[in-house]
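Same chain as my last thread, 484 residues:
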Amino acid sequence: MILVIVVLYILSLTLILAFSLGQLNLALHYRKRVSNVEPTIIKWPYVTVQLPIYNEKYVVERLIDSIAALDYPKDKLEVQVLDDSNDSTSDLVKSKVQEYKAKGLNIAHIQRPDRKGFKAGALAYGNGIASGDFISVFDADFTPGAQFLRKTIPQFQDEKIGMVQTRWGHLNKGYSILTEMQAFGLDAHFTVEQSGRNAAGSFISFNGTAGVWRKSCIDDAGGWSADTLTEDLDLSYRAQLRGWKFKYLEDVISPAELPVILPAIKSQQYRWNKGAAETARKNLSHVLRSSLSFRQKIHASFHLLNSSVFILLLIAGILSIPMLIIKESNPQLQLLFDLGSVFLLGFIAIAYFYWLASKKIQPTKTLKYYLLKFPMFLSFSMGLSLHNTIAVIEGLSGIKTPFIRTPKFNVKSPGDSWKENRYINFKMSPSVVFELILALYFAFGVSVGIYLNDYGLILFHFMLMTGFGAVSLLSFKPITYGRR
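reply #2:
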């Protein structure tokens, strides 16, 4: 039994180290990136903007208003509101569409006979009747700037470019500690990771919104598919495996609203992590058999399997307490434990990854921002590891579940309330009880470390205890208001 625990623990740490070094590699490529130069354009092409909507009465008017304000030739612009709603959202859409039609905007309210295929099905339906040579997609919680198409469309003068993705901004980053933690993690993805992949010549992903596709690229790749929960990542890989190139514009920001309560965050995390695992199950073998370079295959493999880190983190965390006891009772293994300090390299790599992102997002007072947010973000992520592990295992195992949208709140300022939101109908998951048990388990780990005078893992156990404790308690009782 001791041998099994030691081997599993070392294996999980080794794989975490490998993923961490992969992120470090992206960080180094990010530092070498060349800023995008906006090419000139003579003739503006026809563009279709698609807005997939399902029961979004709190934000849909804001979305349509922002799309109507796009600075683009009106005779070259088509807007499709792909409305699958079954509540009063459809009435709000109908009114807004009529308003902007009267002002000369080519906008259509499109309702399918059923919601087959969820978001992917709506996009596929709209794509089949779209007039544009380019397709831009925005989720309901986004408010793109007026210059969005002016900055993205010129990038397609290279005929090999199939998709252009922009960076997400945050309308309510300062609402609460939860929105700050989400923003911290997303900012790293949308600065260092996406830009680093692009600079390395590796595959990047369409993030489901705030991007533009060449319509012929969508068609050539086989179109939108609903067989994974991340139809965006799936289509991205199928398109790039067909030879299309993607471009990421770090300095073009599309603001969006972050979920403000933990059940909504968990719903979103479940879909993202399970969908990524499903996409890996579907596409990883095609990547490995492709003509891509070895480096590109490694980057793509880490990318597709990135959500699996939560499984490794959970295993390493649970086994770390028995490892303390094994270390105490088996002094002959001391050299092995001393060699284990090499795994600190993984932490240093991840710390550097997020440090670069912090420098980009918070160019002034970076150190203060980083030292406050990074430890809290790590602890928060650790606290979600059980929830996300379940999602990843389901995805890798082929267990299918329906697409569950993340409810939108139209909550931006501290003090805004979400309590009247009618879309909040979360059922308490049994995993919440296990998260509370894990918080107590890692509190025990802290005590064991103190008792044995072995403080090497005490910070790790403290962060796990804090993360699981916060996640479980906030699942029982979400934050009611943001900070004032």
